[in-house]
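We treat protein structure as text, and this decision shapes the records that our systems exchange. Because each token names a local backbone shape, the row as a whole describes the fold. An entry from our holdings is shown next, in its original layout:
>
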Amino acid sequence: MLHDRVLVRTEGGEGERRSTGGILIPATAELSKRCSWAEVVAVGQNVRSIEPGDRVLFDPEDRAEVEVRGTLYVLLRERDIHAVAAERIGDTGGSTGLYL
């Protein structure tokens, strides 16, 4: 990875999903604009606050998909990431492990 780029693997699929109440939502249903969580796979040398293995929150509208050896990844800039969830951040005492 170069510069401020972050390569992530999205969680879940684009197919059918279930609501918290158990209702099946078809893949053709339009979602409201909401952010997605993903796991960081690799980071560029200029990325300061994210490490491989972290979970990040990003806007799926601002993404570039790439396929590497048959696996689909999303390529982002560090500035396009809205939040980071990591165990190393949560070791500060009473924090939630998230930083925005």
About this structure: The beta strands are 5-10, 17-18, 24-25, 36-43, 55-58, 64-68, 71-77, 81-85, 98-99. The chain has a mean pLDDT of 77. DSSP finds no helices and nine strands in the chain. The CA atoms of residues 61 and 92 lie 33 Å apart.
